[in-house]
Specification:
heterodimer, A: 246 residues, mainly alpha, 12 helices, B: 199 residues, globular
Chain lengths: 246, 199
């Protein structure tokens, strides 16, 4: 099995899990506090970061593991049928682009899908525990995060990009970055280079509360936006330069 | 001339003749008596429903033979045939068929080639069938982890996809083929099998 050679390390991680978990949960609180003070009143400090991103179990194990991109490339093989070679995804939005995403974000999403915190019936059977362990997840994340992001992602219609820019820079950029580069340390995904239709689909799901592992602070910010506004933001994000500083 | 070289020169041939038959000869003998009647000596067998083995990855053939031996994979004929084999025969047989030259298969329903190729290259986004190319590689030539399926007989490919779909074949790695086949319609199975046969 892939990852077999790394089992001893996983065991070690498990042993010290609770101590590390406490340390990372503490760190998350500090980050949350720092974020809320930096962003002013717009980011409510009352919402603990651990609600959307609890640091426990195999998520923690995968985050602690040293991902091996070469092994990740092999483990990713079975994912390529949908996410395409190098994790470039599909412009029709049916499968997101994973190339160039932060490894922490990828680990969070994979383990959340496995644990049912993010519901994805289509992907779940492929990523269930019968074949993959936390080390494999770390390997896949290491591989994907190192893939380059070509500017050929699916773009929006380009009609309300100005509106999209205003909303994005006002409501989204504080977490997802001025250039859509995201923030790996805080588990905020990179959005530049992502397919427009996927961005739009996820925005709508998050607004409707269907994406259970979303940051509740984001859900609050997205809720008041109309369909047209969501569309404009997705359009703008899909046009962010992929070569922006990260 | 040194002593060992002299000894070798005078006695080497005798020593070689006394050694047990090399594995290659063993394998070829087994192929002739056990495998070739159905799979063909060149692995491009012509019996309907019997898979082509020529050019299949040795690691894949080995796994299938071992799975037949252990009962993890079952087939009426093969289960009977492997009874005459021992696990030590497996590497030689796998290497033999892996190095045979695969012949191009025969397309029977050219009308299915277009949809079969679409299935292989893109899968079905609506029903969540992954593209076959993701694992089986460009040209369906496979790799060390996923078998070559190019040029495979339609009847065999169809039967295997249906067995995976119905949970009758369960020796796929990480259940991958079972999950994929469960999402495929009969039409998709037939189309992709036809496309593979023509590769």
């Amino acid at each position: 099995m892939i990852g077999g050679a790394h089992r001893p390390r996983e065991k070690t991680v498990r042993k010290t899990k609770s101590r590390r978990a406490r340390a990372i949960v503490g760190l998350a609180w500090v980050l949350a506090a720092a974020a809320s003070s930096a962003n002013g009143p717009a980011a409510p400090a009352a919402e603990p970061e651990t609600m959307w991103n609890e640091m426990q179990g195999e998520k923690l194990q995968a985050l602690r593991a040293r991902g091996d991109p070469a092994r990740g490339e092999i483990a990713f093989e079975v994912c390529q049928g949908c996410h395409r070679a190098h994790g470039l995804g599909r412009p029709d939005g049916s499968y997101p682009r994973l190339a160039g995403q932060h490894d922490t974000v990828l680990i969070k999403q994979m383990t959340d899908v496995r644990a049912g915190r993010r519901r994805n019936d289509r992907m779940l059977p492929f990523i269930e525990r019968h074949g993959l362990g936390p080390q494999d997840i770390a390997d896949i994340a290491a591989y994907l995060s190192r893939q380059s992001v070509p500017p050929d992602n699916g773009k929006g219609p380009g009609v309300n990009v100005g509106t999209g820019e205003t909303i994005y820079q006002d409501k989204c950029a504080s977490c997802h970055g001025t250039y859509g580069e995201g923030d790996g340390e805080r588990f905020y995904p990179r959005v530049s280079g992502q397919h427009y239709k996927y961005l739009l689909h996820e925005e709508r799901d998050i607004r409707a509360g269907l994406r259970a592992n979303a940051d509740s602070r984001m859900v609050e910010r997205v809720k008041p936006l109309s369909d047209a506004e969501l569309d404009a933001v997705a359009d703008y994000m899909s046009r962010l330069p992929v070569t922006a500083p990260r | 001339m040194g002593e060992p070289a002299r000894l070798w020169r005078y006695h080497g041939a005798w020593l070689l003749a006394c050694l047990p038959l090399p594995a290659v000869a063993d394998a070829e003998q087994l192929v002739t008596t056990v495998c070739a009647p159905c799979h063909g000596a060149d692995g491009n067998g012509v019996v309907a429903g019997v898979p082509r083995l020529a050019g299949l990855q040795a690691v894949y053939i080995s796994k299938q033979l071992k799975d037949y031996l252990s009962g993890k994979r079952r087939n009426e004929t093969m289960s009977m045939v492997v009874a005459s084999l021992d696990e030590s025969d497996v590497p030689g047989l796998a290497a033999y068929y892996a190095r045979q030259q695969p012949a191009r298969g025969e397309v029977r329903q050219p009308a299915l080639l277009g949809s079969g190729k679409a299935m292989f290259d893109d899968g079905n986004v609506d029903s969540g069938v992954p593209a076959c190319v993701g694992c089986h590689q460009e040209g369906a030539v496979g790799n060390e982890r996923n078998p070559r399926i190019a040029g495979q007989h339609q009847d065999y490919a169809i039967e295997q996809m249906k067995q995976f779909r119905d949970g009758k074949r369960t020796n796929d790695r990480n259940k991958a083929m079972r999950i994929v086949a469960e999402r495929m319609t009969d039409d998709e199975v037939h189309a992709v099998a036809e496309y593979l046969a023509g590769l």
